[in-house]
Amino acid sequence: MAPTTFPLLFLPVLLTVAHGVPPIKLPPPINNMQATGMGLQYCTLPKSGSTITKIVLCELELAYRRKPQRMMSGKNMSGNTVCTNNKWFLKSQVRRWNPRQPGVKFTLFRHPVDRVISVYGDMCGRKHFCKQMSINQFVKNLYFLYRGRNNFPGHKAVHLRYHAMPQAAFCNLKGQAKNFAIVKYNSDKARMKRQLHRIFVMAKVPPHLSQRALRHITQSSTEHANKNHARKSDLKEKVLNNPQTMKYLQAIYHDDFRIWRTLK
């Protein structure tokens, strides 16, 4: 998905946190809703399981529209599916079941620390945007990027700014989180499958089709997946053990931390 356009500068809130690190104010809400037409409205959050979720939803959409294609399980899969390429077949009049109206709004939400580590691994590792930066330097520079001082390669900053954007900035989650069914995106894939299954059934998706589509959560992987668990654990330890880095993270992601604390 192309980065959404929004103002370069995020003005800091007048209130400040400890040691002079002002919290960042969110930009106007970014509309990242995927209206599937089958009783599910999905808010896409970058670096929070969006690729695998779009694969699952496409499996359901193909069944809903009685299309002959299937989303086969596999490795290094992309969220650029036949469904996204055809705008979820919204012009089709074919319906395999009667979906819930209005559709159930849902999203997958990631812990801010895990998410920023994922962004760092993708941008500074796989894509080499900032390969010389440590994780702590990256978080500091990310904070100042949102304050309007860019220490990243100029033309790549827009891409980074979008993918590291606080999740609360999308779909007005900051003020409307209570109107969404929110699933914690983490390593507990069995729990994620159970929660997503409940959401899909609530939207009147036939249970057997829901279960079939959700196999992708455990049987498929995406092209962005970081499988180096030891590396991720090392980065997480460096973040959590650096008080100043945590202050920068709290200043950027204060709304995300607040929403995360409310999730079960």
Fold and architecture overview:
- With 264 residues, the chain is α/β, with parallel strands linked by helices.
- The chain has one domain (18-262): Rossmann fold.
- The protein is 45% helix and 7% strand.
- The protein contains 11 helices and 4 strands.
- It has helices spanning 50-64, 82-85, 112-126, 135-146, 154-163, 173-176, 189-202, 207-213, 215-219, 229-240, 243-262; strands spanning 33-35, 40-43, 104-110, 181-185.
- The protein has a 4-stranded mixed β-sheet with strand order 1-2-3-4.
- A hairpin with a 4-residue loop joins strand 1 (33-35) and strand 2.
- Helix 1 (50-64) packs across helix 8 (207-213), helix 3 (112-126) packs across helix 10 (229-240) and helix 4 packs across helix 11.
- The longest helix has 20 residues, at 243-262.
- It is globular.
- Keywords: Signal.
- One of its GO terms (cellular component) is membrane.
What descriptive keywords fit this protein?
single chain; 264 residues; alpha/beta; Rossmann fold; four-stranded mixed β-sheet; 11 helices; 4 strands; 7% strand; disordered N terminus; P-loop_NTPase; chondroitin 4-sulfotransferase activity; signal; Sulfotransferase; Chst-1-like
